[in-house]
Amino acid sequence: MEAEPPSDSYIDYEAFLSPTFSPHSFANALILHTNTSDDPNLDLSTPLSRVLFDLQEIDSHIHSLTTGNASELLAYAEESRSVSEGLVKGVEEQMKVVGAAYRRLEREVVGRGRAAEEVLGVVERLSGVTRVVRVVGRVVLLGRQLEGLVGEWFSSRGATGGGTGGEGDWKVLLRIGYTVAEMRRTLVADKEKEGGGELAEVNCVKVVVSQLLVPAEQYLKTTATGVVANFALPTTSTTTNIGTSNPTTSSFPPTTSTTTSSSFAAQKFLEAYLSRVSSATQILYLLSPPSTLKPSSDSPLLLQVLNTFLTNQTTTSLAALSRVFSSLTPTQPSPPALDRSFLEIVQKIRGIAALEEVLKSVPLSILDSTSTIPTTNPTLDGVDNEDEAALGEEDDAEQTLLGFVLADLDTPSLPTLFFRNLSSGLETLVRNVLARGGVAARGLRAGKDKLREGLRGVVERGLAGEDGSVRVGGDGRRGGRRKRRAGEREVGIGVVIGGVEKGFGER
């Protein structure tokens, strides 16, 4: 029924039917065709009349087509209407079927779904209650265990005659530390869960926390901090008469059996003392492990205590040297008091080295484990093969408590950090004495060579130990320690003497 445009029409139907036809381009061409491009007065009436005449022509052509084909158009419209009515009737029937299916599903599914939602809500609440009850049971169980361990600890203290500090079974105190850490970990884990925090509202948990956990945690901090902060390696004189009422050295020459017995007792005393120190360091680590600290939190408790310990060792050493430097004279540039001060510093260095070995003997794996609570102290476990111990010593140190401490303090070893602090203090101390002038300054200048030699001996003897090494682990570890201490000794001598030379202005 499609009609071709009349061939005698002046209208360019092909231009209008072209896919690339543009009304703007056609209008622009029509205006330019009916006007002069340099004429300032633009006449739009002519192109407008042309467009209107074209529209009238097209309208007349459409009217003639519809008039001439009216019967065909009406038949086509009637046929389309009948087909549309059939489609609508089919759609309506399908809609009725869909509506009936929806009503059936609403009865069988939606209603049951609403009931299932109520059941789901009940189950979720019961699950939350079960979780809380399970965690409460865990906390109460740990509280009972903590209560029993605390009683066992104080019973062991009473069995050894009471007292404070080193008295009691420190294996029990270490287990208390593990129990406290596990309770804290449980409480923190519940608080960090989505929708958690209900545990803190349970009365029995409040009682356990306030009456058991907090006092035990505070007691552990105080006791362990006191042991580590006041750590000092026992000397031979303090362990000569272990087990007697008068722990002083006898004035009679000891027999061979007496000497052997005293050495054995001294070694046992040292091992027990270092075991307590090891337990104290582990307790301090457990009370504030790095994994539970936020970036804005303070440093772990162990690092705080070790920093305080090293600062106190440096301060007391410099205070002793300051008193000696103030009493120097040109006639006596090296008085006996200076030798005693050197001896005190030697003992402090030995203590720091021994503390380092204690930290190295504690693997981080047993501290970071949450599955078991160890009942033994790893401090006194030995290594049989010296070569294997020396080969794996550096790698093992990174996986121990020592590696954690050294990484945070940014130092290769604790004695090296002590030497750095001592060197800085010696530089300031020497400068102050020289700046004040007087007899003390002249005596210090006169004895500066002896001062250098004395400090060299301090470093060498301090890192050598009383019998050549500080025995914390087995014999197999001593070879590796000797190699490492040799390097530390050279560095320490250079650092300490360098501080004195800077004080004299020689560097």
Q: How would you state the average pLDDT, rounded?
A: 78
Shape: elongated
Strand content: under 5%
Radius of gyration computed on alpha carbons:
47 Å
Pick out the low-confidence regions.
162-166, 237-258, 292-297, 370-392, 466-476
The share of residues in helices is over 70%
> Helix tally?
16
One letter per element, helices H and strands E, the order comes to HHHHHHHHHHHHHHHH
Beta-strand segment tally: 0
Category from helices, strands and their pairing: mainly alpha
Largest sheet: none
- For the termini, the CA-CA separation is 112 Å
List keywords for this structure.
507 residues; mainly alpha
Describe this structure in words.
The protein is mostly helical and 507 residues long. The chain has helices at 13-17, 23-34, 45-68, 70-159, 170-192, 203-229, 256-287, 301-326, 336-360, 364-368, 386-398, 401-409, 414-436, 439-446, 448-464, 478-503. α5 (170-192) runs parallel beside α7 (256-287), α9 crosses α12 and α15 (448-464) runs antiparallel to α16.
